[in-house]
Design goal:
By secondary structure, the chain is of the alpha+beta class. The chain is built from 30 helices and 24 strands. The strands form 5 sheets. Strands 1, 2, 3, 4, 5, 6, 7, 8 and 11 form a 9-stranded antiparallel beta sheet that branches. A 9-stranded mixed beta sheet has the order 16-18-15-19-20-14-21-22-23, with helices on both faces. A two-stranded antiparallel ribbon has the order 9-10. It is elongated, with a radius of gyration of 45 Å.
């Protein structure tokens, strides 16, 4: 009877057992005979399943989205925000299609540097997790949509896979958040050069932990711990047996046995094997104990370059940077070396596998690739404010001679090479320089002025000391610049020295009468501290006097008698000489005459000196009297702006009288800039004002300086201010300068002096850092493309090192002559004579034959500047 046909239900138990044994025997024989076929079928099934999983993984990974995290300059975070972000990433990794294989449920953090930016931080994950990836718990981080990374084929590319090496339960080093844990990685890629095709990328792939995978790994870890405990117990037993045997074989022990009584002699000792210690499960599992925050990771690195050796060096730098996380467990590259040959992800046949994982985001982590979120805290965030970001070549341009760029200073890059940084003309609107005297503020401004002049731009440099003109002259002595150069040097002393002239009341330029009047009155008022609260009468008198003389000048120009225009020095006879006043009033409109005939006679005599005293101080200076005493002049700031002139203005000093003149000049700059509103915006050529020694200008022109900063940007006027002590500038001007400054810089100085600038940079530069700067060293920040760059430590440029080949010392005399010719400069003595006799010329122009004097004229009074003792009340105000 065939045992395979036994009826097991009706057979005794021994028959059933025998039948099972026989059946098992025949099944084993059949399996042995068909093993190859079964193995082939199993291989085919496994290959088919892997092909399906691979296809599903590829389909799932095709639907990815990319975002770039852009932190602000003040971004900082804490461990709680980092853990929340990590949990959000794991949720995003699990948000893919339900049929996606586990190794395709990943999210990737890509740290990328190509020489254009210090380190970009991107997150890549399933498209279905868009709502998770576009939001972060970081308050000062913006997420911007990004495109997939496009690669160009490089001559040299190296690859590396980093795995956790150490015990399964041990953790990576807990790296503090300050300084930034990414700093070593930032330093490793700081000297990348985009022109050499340098590229470095670090990809951290995260995958949710599998429950069965965690349980399996825990069982292995606990089992391995128990095995080690047993081995330790066995090893200890062997050591004890060896120690006992060594003791029994010793001479001392044998002699003791011989001398001891027979009944007290012991036999050989019995060694009891020590019991293995109890395993502490929590200690053995370590970081694997808790499921929360446990993920599997894969760290891939790839570096490329067009130059031999640069990619390999970059990879070694990145390896060193990752050592910051090393503790009992560390991140080390996978592979091994045999002499000069290295086997790993960069070698065949592992390279193709690496490239697939790199391109797709598939994760093939190692056995011990389990980490907790807090171990990766340094990589789960963009660079914070505590990171020192290097200045990349694309962050700020390098100065090119005869271009629209403005040279700013020499900066030494991470690779040790220095380059002359520059800012674009459109980005550099207003600049403030602070620091002690002789530390390079004016020198840096002169370099910029020369650069602007050689590019064809217009500028006005106001220097109260004149030394700058002698310094810069050899670099401006070129034909193309000579024909555009104006010089207004008020430091002349010799009667034969040539001096240009300016009539602030002149109407030859075609300016509106009310604008000219406002410019002169505001200059006087701001310089003298007049206001509606403390000097309303003085302002009124001055306004009406200037208004009347401007009206006279308008008529003179209309009658082609520009040489008969009145100057500021004709305000005294207008206010004190009844005859002259009557001649002026006769040329005014009825509305203008009404104030002179009704209001002016009621003004007390003691009110006039308030207005006359400043005029007398101006007239007391021969140079200022010569400069302002001519009816016409070449000083025309509106023309200088429109025709891109190179204007050098050297006031005589910083006393009260000189400050009044400077106030008039600065106010006229404001008027000229505002008057450009009649030009289309595209025709407003940029014009730069360089104002040295702002302290001396601020007291007399504080309102004008603030308004220039606040209003003239749209009219193409830019301003650069230099001062030793910013806290001595009036609050309104200081606030306007700091608010609108495109560039801020400071040299060495007292902590109080530099504090206003360093405060604008937060904690990046302290006043103590700035106070210890050497000569020509600056801390500076710039605006490039609407973004602030810096603060950076730079060395101020010098004229001879930037424009040494442009210096023409032999042509400085020719430049001086050209500047004087363009401004129609005349000898000081001649201009003084003109100013002294010009009142008679104006009287002659105002006297119209056959027409009686005005209604206020008192013909009985002589034409003098002082009233007679017996004058009537009406005459007292003459």
């Amino acid at each position: 009877m065939d045992p395979r046909t036994v009826d097991l239900a009706s057979s005794p138990w021994w028959s059933v057992a025998f039948g099972l044994i026989v059946w098992t025997w025949h099944a084993g024989v059949w399996l042995m005979g068909n093993a190859w076929w079964l193995a082939l079928i199993a291989a085919l099934v496994w290959a088919g399943w892997e092909a399906v999983r691979h296809h599903l993984a590829e389909e799932a990974l095709k639907q990815r989205m990319f975002v770039e995290l852009v932190p602000s300059g003040q971004f900082e975070t804490n461990e709680e925000e980092i853990l929340r972000f990590g949990a959000q990433l794991i949720r995003a990794a699990s948000a893919g299609k339900w049929w996606a294989p586990r190794h395709a449920r990943t999210v990737r953090i890509r740290l990328r540097a190509d020489g254009s930016k210090p380190l970009t931080y991107r997150v890549e994950g399933p498209a279905s997790a868009q709502h998770l990836l576009q939001q972060t718990p970081y308050a000062r981080v913006q997420t911007e949509p990004a495109r997939p990374v496009a690669y160009k084929k490089s001559k040299h590319t190296v690859r590396a896979v980093f795995a956790l090496h150490g015990t399964a339960s041990s953790k990576l080093r807990e790296v503090p958040l300050q300084p930034d844990p990414l700093q070593p990685l930032i330093d490793a890629v700081a000297d990348l050069r985009s022109d050499l095709g340098d590229l470095a990328e670090v990809c951290l792939d995260l995958s949710p932990a599998s429950k069965w995978g965690i349980k399996s790994r825990r069982w292995h870890v606990v089992h391995a711990s128990r095995q080690r405990a047993r081995q330790e117990a066995q090893r200890e037993a062997r050591w004890m047996a060896q120690d006992s045997a060594a003791l029994e074989d010793s001479w001392g022990w044998q002699l003791t046995q011989l001398l001891a009584p027979p009944d007290q002699r012991g036999g050989r000792r019995l060694i009891r094997m020590p019991r293995p210690p109890r395993i502490d499960r929590e200690k053995a599992l370590g970081k694997l104990m808790e499921d929360t925050g446990l993920v599997r990771v894969q760290l891939l690195v790839r570096c490329s370059s067009e130059e031999t050796g640069r990619a390999e060096r970059r990879l070694r730098h990145i390896e060193a940077a990752l050592d910051v996380f090393a503790a009992r467990t560390r991140l080390s590259s996978v592979g091994w070396s045999w002499g000069p040959v290295r086997f790993g992800p960069d070698s065949w046949p592992w390279r193709s596998r690496f490239d697939r994982r790199w391109a797709s985001g598939l994760i093939r982590p190692g056995r011990d690739s389990w980490v907790r979120m807090e171990e990766l805290a340094g990589l789960l965030k963009p660079p914070t404010m505590h990171a020192r970001l290097p200045l990349m070549a694309g962050d700020i341009p390098t100065y090119v001679p005869k271009s629209s760029l403005l040279p700013q200073g020499w900066h030494r890059g991470p690779d040790g090479t220095a380059r002359l940084l520059a800012t674009r003309e459109s980005d550099t609107l207003f600049e403030v320089q602070v620091g002690k005297a002789g530390w390079g503020k004016t020198t840096r401004a002169l370099v910029q002025a020369v650069a602007v002049a050689h590019h064809g731009g217009g500028l006005a440099f106001v220097d109260p000391h004149r030394d700058s003109w002698a310094t810069v002259a050899p670099y401006l002595a070129h034909d193309t610049i000579m024909e555009r150069t104006w010089l207004f040097d008020l430091t002349v002393r010799d009667p034969a020295d040539r001096l240009a002239s300016w009539n602030p009341l002149s109407m030859t330029s075609g300016a509106a009468a009310h604008e000219v009047t406002a410019a002169v009155v505001d200059a006087f008022a701001t310089s003298l501290g007049w206001g509606d609260a403390n000097a309303p009468r003085a302002i009124t008198i001055l306004t009406k006097a200037v208004e009347a003389l401007v009206a006279v000048n308008a008529k003179a120009v209309a009658e082609s008698k520009a040489d008969c225009q009145a100057t500021v020095f004709q305000m005294r006879p207008l206010l004190t000489d009844a005859t002259f006043r009557a001649l002026v009033i006769a040329r005014l409109t009825a509305d203008a005459q009404r104030w002179w005939t009704t209001s002016f006679p009621a003004i007390p005599a003691d009110a006039l000196p308030t207005v006359l005293n400043p005029l007398d101080r101006l007239a007391a200076s021969p140079v200022i009297k010569a400069f302002l005493g001519s009816p016409t002049g070449s000083y025309d700031m509106r023309r200088a702006m429109d025709e891109s002139k190179v204007v050098w203005i050297c006031p005589a000093g910083t006393g009260p009288t000189d400050r009044l003149l400077t106030s008039m000049i600065v106010r006229d700059m404001l008027r000229a800039g505002l008057s450009r509103r009649d030009l289309p915006e595209k025709q407003r050529t940029p014009f730069r004002l360089y104002l040295d020694e702002l302290i001396s200008l601020d007291g007399s022109a504080s309102t004008s300086l603030a308004e220039i900063t606040e209003q003239l940007r749209k009219f193409g006027v830019r301003m650069h201010g230099m001062t030793q002590l910013l806290h001595r500038i009036s609050p309104d001007v200081r606030t306007a300068l700091l608010q609108n400054a495109s560039s801020l810089s400071t040299t060495a100085g007292s902590t109080e002096a530099v504090r206003y600038v360093t405060n604008e940079w937060g904690d990046q530069v302290s006043p103590a850092d700035a106070a210890e700067l050497g000569r020509y060293q600056h801390w500076a920040s710039f605006t490039v493309g609407g973004t602030r760059v810096g603060p950076l430590r730079i060395r101020g440029p010098e004229l001879n090192e930037v424009f040494g080949d442009l210096a023409l010392g032999s042509k400085t005399k020719e430049l001086q002559d050209a500047a004087d010719t363009h401004t129609d400069a005349k000898p000081l003595a001649e201009l003084t004579a003109v100013a002294s006799t010009h009142e008679a010329i104006v009287r002659a122009f105002l006297t119209v034959p056959g027409k009686a004097p005005g209604p206020e004229a008192d013909t009985s009074q002589p034409s003098t500047s002082q009233p007679s003792p017996g004058a009537t009340r009406k005459g007292q105000f003459a």
